[in-house]
Design a protein that fits this description.
CATH architecture of the largest domain: Alpha-Beta Barrel
Largest sheet: 8 strands, mixed
Shape: elongated
CATH topology of the largest domain: TIM Barrel
Number of strands: 16
Mean pLDDT: 95
Helix content: 25-40%
Number of domains: 2
Strand content: 15-25%
Length: 357
């Protein structure tokens, strides 16, 4: 059975690296846990780090967090759906919002539950996902300012999540200006200006972040140490907090090209022969106990760089081990580095065991 392993020491070192960066710059931050898909084993590891603020886009995951530690501040990081309002107020201390109608429903539900629900108003700044348009922000803010049982904790934006728009210094300065406009107009103080996610870390490291932007939501950098501007690993961080381990269930020398009449495969693909390939060539192929139900091959890379991924079906992955210097046998494990989307597939699969290393 294939399994994914979280390396506790590497996670802790990445967390301490980030926490030092943020604290030294007087920035608040929370951990985005949606990658973990509500896995209790891994959520306990996050809480054990001392994390006091966890963000997620699934209310079931926030419910799990509250069951593990009610004192953790939970943040729902997408505009709430109408059918989820009751649970949002019950399990999320804070939610991201863009619609007056939704906030009015949150207000009514918060009164029923005798709670004060905090909200972040998300502003559209070019990535074209969720957000109030800038020219409508003052009117929007004024319309919800006096709603009962609603506290406006801050403003924020999402960049690089849909269209790839990067959080440049100019973008964050613009966000800071929205804070100034609101505070001047309504004579209030806005506690949080939430400037984005892991993609903003390079700006923070360069001290290019406007001081008014004082909050960030971090997931990918914590688990993968990735600089999303350059694609490299941030110096001082680990890119292999997670590893995938798969077992070899067959090793056979086979032709490189399939034999027989070609049609569409069971997963909807059709083999396209390469005109330059020698139809008489063979390779040593290994079949691994994982497939498309659990992962996508483009998001994993074998630690043994001499292994080439050939293709996958629903439950099996075929790799070429001809050039490997290792003498693989049936039952051996082959380990893989995982990209963010690869981990998301694996962690959402009920068929992949989750372990701690």
């Amino acid at each position: 059975m294939a399994f994914i392993k979280l390396y506790r020491n590497k996670l802790e070192e990445n967390f301490q690296f980030l926490d030092t960066i943020f604290k030294s710059r007087n920035i608040q931050w929370g951990v985005v846990s949606k990658l973990l898909c509500g896995n209790e084993i891994y959520l306990k590891e996050i809480i054990a780090l001392g994390v006091r603020e966890i963000h997620d886009s699934r209310i079931s995951n926030l419910r799990k967090i509250k069951s593990l530690d009610p004192s953790v501040q939970t943040v729902y990081i997408k505009p709430p759906a109408k059918r989820s309002i009751e649970d949002i107020v019950r399990y999320a201390d804070v939610s991201f919002n863009t619609e007056i109608y939704t906030i009015e429903m949150l207000s009514k539900e918060a009164q029923k539950q005798n709670k004060v629900h905090q909200i972040i108003i998300m502003i559209e700044m070019g990535d074209l996902r969720e957000g109030v348009m800038g020219e409508e922000l003052i009117e929007f803010y004024g319309a919800i300012l006096k709603l009962p049982n609603i506290e406006i904790l801050g403003i924020g934006t999402n960049l690089n999540c849909l269209s790839g728009i990067m959080p440049t210094q100019d973008k964050l300065i613009q966000l800071s200006l929205y804070k100034q406009l609101i505070e001047a107009k309504f004579n209030i103080h806005i506690p949080w200006v939430s400037g984005g996610t892991s993609v903003a870390i390079p700006l923070i490291l360069k001290n290019a972040r406007p001081m008014a932007v004082n909050h960030f939501r971090i997931g990918e950098a914590l688990f993968f140490g990735k600089d999303l501007f350059s694609g490299d690993t941030i110096q001082g961080m680990h890119n292999d907090v997670f590893k995938l381990y798969t077992e070899i269930i067959e090793i056979t020398e086979k032709p490189d090209a399939p034999i027989g009449e070609l049609g569409e495969s069971g997963v909807g693909s059709t083999y396209a022969p390469d005109e330059s390939e020698d139809l008489g060539e063979t390779s040593l192929r290994a079949i691994l106990d994982i497939g498309l139900l659990d992962m996508q091959p483009q998001y994993i890379e074998a630690d043994d760089l001499d292994i080439t991924i050939i293709d996958a079906s629903s439950d099996m992955l075929v790799v070429d081990i001809s050039n490997s210097k290792k003498n693989y046998k049936i039952g051996d494990l082959i380990s893989f580095k995982i990209k963010y989307m690869g981990a998301l597939y694996l962690l959402s699969s009920d068929y992949i065991e989750k372990t701690i290393g």
